[in-house]
Design a protein that fits this description.
- The protein is α+β, with helices and mostly antiparallel strands.
- The protein has helices spanning 8-59, 64-69, 76-81, 202-217, 307-316, 347-350, and strands spanning 71-75, 103-108, 114-117, 127-130, 135-139, 149-152, 164-166, 175-183, 186-195, 225-227, 235-237, 245-248, 253-266, 269-278, 324-325, 336-337.
- The strands form 5 sheets. Strands 10, 11, 12, 13 and 14 form a 5-stranded antiparallel β-sheet that branches.
- The longest helix has 52 residues, at 8-59.
- It is elongated.
Length: 359
Amino acid sequence: MKKSGFTLVELIAAIGILAMLITLAVTVSLSWIDKSKEKSKETLIQSIELAAKQYVMDYKSELTTLKTNDYIYITLQELTEKEYFTNSLVDPITEKSLPLTDTVYVTIEANGTITSTYDIDQKTKAKLTLIGSYNEYIKKGSTYTELGVVAIDKDGTNVSSSVTITGTVDTSITGTYKITYEYENVSIIRNVIVYSGNMPSSEDISKLTTHIRNLYAKNDPTNGLEKDDTKDENIRYVGSNPNNYVEFGNIGELWRIIGIFEVEISSGIKEKLIKLVRNESLIDASWDSSASDINGGYGVNEWSESDLKTLLNDYYYGDSATCTYCNRSSQETCTNDCLSTVAKIGSTYKEMIESVVWN
């Protein structure tokens, strides 16, 4: 009688197939684990970048470097201390805590868009830092001078002379030009915005209103003009558009045209007027002095009595020849002379500003 069973060859074949299946299963499992870790890494980076953007929005008024240069490096230490993270930050690949000295690079575009970038492997790379601003404004027809960057290699060596710079700026044509700085596997950019520098007159301001309306009527998306969803249907510039910059004021201050808005110029009387905003902050001044003997040493809480009102309304825009202000970072000092710091807007430009009623 013949016995059933595996021959030696069949047994060896079965063991081989089983080994192959186990190897395949392990390989698939390891691959899944690797993909899972990579996904966790991406999520971690995104959460850090979102935290940095939120930090900038929450503390923008206090971030002097950001206000001056349109960019800032924020450390993980700062984000942790401000409690944007409740748990420790651990690299899912290496399973090691991220160095709190790591930085997130945050920039603000000309249109106000905030972008944050975090490189989780930055400790193995060089660091590039822009000299000057992320957004450099150049008057049409003037000369663009390259400012460059400071490049520090991972070992602390200054390698700025080895940075490759690409991109050109044509100052005869208005627009936004991008300059790229690169060293090995690290790169950053700068926006150079060439704007039309025609000094407006009172007649130009009136014509400019008509000009903007005509541009909007062309329905050309490159104009950057849109109507908002308010009942007044104000026409606004949206996005980065270098053509909505004008020089305004005695020292050629750069101002950005926000758009045409319906405002109440007197009780019950409305008119469509251009809204301008100064491109750079006028001065780093406080609302009022904490050293004041008013309100228990906290200073006044009324605009008409504040130091800032005196600076802006009475001096910068008004007829006062002198004033003092309080430095925001050192509010107990209120003897700073406006005359040596702030240039008055001037009577010519003052006449262009409409008196309005703000509700």
